[in-house]
Request: fold
Amino acid sequence: MTPAGLTPRLERAFNPKTVAVVGDKRAMGYMWLHSMKTFAGKLYSVQIDPAEIPGIEALEVPNYPSLTDIPEDIDYVLCAVPRPVAARIVADCAKKQVGAVALFTSGFAETETEEGIDAQQQVTEIARENDLLLIGPNCMGLYNRRLGVRHSPDQEHGDAGNVGFISQSGTHCINFALVGATHGIKCSKTVSFGNAVLLDAPDYIDYLEQDAETEVIAIYIEGTKDGPRLLRSLKAAAARKPVVVWRGGTSTAGSRAVYSHTASLAAAPAVWSAAMRQAGVIETDGLDETIDAVKALVYCKPATGKRMGLVAMTGGQSVVITDAFEREGMEVPLLTPASYEKLASFFNIIGGSYRNPLDAGGTIGMGFVPGNLQKLFEILEEDENVDAIAMEVSGTFIARRLRDNPSIMNGLLDILAAQRERSAKPFLTITHPSHVEDVMADVRRKLLDRGVAAFTSFRSAARALALATAYWASRHNGA
Amino acid sequence: MAPLMVTLSEAIERARNEDRSVLTEVESKQILAAAGIPVAETTLAASADEAAKAAANAGFPVVLKIVSPDVTHKSDVGGVRVGLEDEAAVRAAYDEIVAAVAERQPKARIEGVAVQAMARPGTEVIVGMSKDPQFGPVLMFGLGGIFVEVLKDVAFRIVPLEERDAREMIDEINGRAILDGVRGGEPADIGALTGLLLQLSTFSEANPQVEELDLNPVFAYKDGCLAVDARIVVSSDK
Reply:
């Protein structure tokens, strides 16, 4: 049951001025206080165990014996107390009229025990009776990158992000932000919602749909109590911004694991996929694919066309990059006669070819003949048979030069960044798996820093672009 | 003889009184026809004479099928006769069906036989509705015969459907090209199939007591479509 006037209330919780952590302790390495140390507002601790208080004071966080003793309003509470104490803290949150409380505490219905189910019922009733926003239980709560409200001490903070993540699992919620960050994805706000006794996935979807900071929404979900409502929320959100849904528990044994994880039932995979298609969202499987799809949505210009212009360094790579894109439903067409005429004037066909894919290593000096690489981009840009452009960046022949000569690396990055800047078409690069993975990771990171979509394999790039293209095409058709 | 037209609530009440949740073919078709869904007109006949008269009204050739709340797989018990060309053949078939069912399933209550004109063959498709514990009523669409039975080539959408959903689910099946007409077959009227799916979506939404719905087969023609057989399962509680 969604509480009334939810949006402004979630706005308060997601953008707190004051945060209290209840029950953090040495045994957890004061994980929550370390995570919240970056919070831009006022941080408080609540702990009554005298053995824990010196450790908390050492972190310079003011500690109180009770929430109700804190001398100002609290917008967001993270509660990490053991289960037997949870109900009392939730009651204090209600008394204090806090903006929202996230229960990190677990051991509720997901244990499938009578005590767990009873305890869940108890905290739910307290929250309901007092109109308290309860997130979880059995969750990691909220992350706001801009404000430094975090649920992991390793999460980035300070500058704003544009991707919202909603997760039934705490680990996937943290991982999306952490691993996503290494792929150039900056989260705006994320929430791990756990057992969802009061607030469920659709509530957070509705909130992020209208959140101006959030441009793409990604979701990890295992099941839902109210399928039609989830479908409505997804559909409404997907009509405004891209939505990526990764569902866990689609295998037979996986669906069994879902129940003991968050006490929800899993729909038949075919029905689930149908619902996702009907909602107009992108369905993904796994963290990698989810991150790749989000990356394509964030970094590539929105486009509905499937026709690729491909640039590879060698013959073998030309073949397999083409296979990868075609297998994902993209097309690799012949170019226009005008393009071929231009290409014929300078393209090095000894050990190369230019029908599309462009086997261009010789022509562009593996990326180090900037003039020719730029000419190739210009031709593909103008070619009306080409909707999107992808280029292989491999370490096979150039790793040493990239590593030893920063000006060479920067020269290549400059051309790729300029192409991304100039191009009206989706542009992506693939930093192909390499014997010098550290160099390629460095190149990838630098490309992403400069706004260029960079993927780790042909297949992942092709898949991500195909998913993004399908989303934009579906939205285009639905309009 | 049963009332000429039965409403859904009457059929449900009768079914509950008889401790069954599956409506008979005649009941199912009358309910769907009343909702504007194209079904082959079927008349219940409780005697050989009634069957002959109904057949003359429907136009030859006709099909006779057993009507019994206890029989779900009609042909397995000798309950179906097709291609009956005249009244004499219908009378004989009536007696044979009743005798066959009585012999093979002696406890089956026999209401009579359903008489319907042989439908002009078309591309066989199936349309169904079942309930998902999380999403509620879900429509299924597929090609009939081995496509659904062996290849499981079906598409789903959650009720309520928009026209776009209906079109997409038709386009989604692997055997979609068959609906364009292959080996000289006529193409299927996609607009009519879309309309049928939307009607069933509306019907399922308006009648939550309906737990399952099977239109199998539906003949798709180049102009329109027709459900030749239909089965409604209602919730058994309350």
Q: What stands out?
A: The longest strand of chain A covers residues 187-192. The two ends of chain A are 31 Å apart (CA to CA). Chain A has a mean pLDDT of 93.
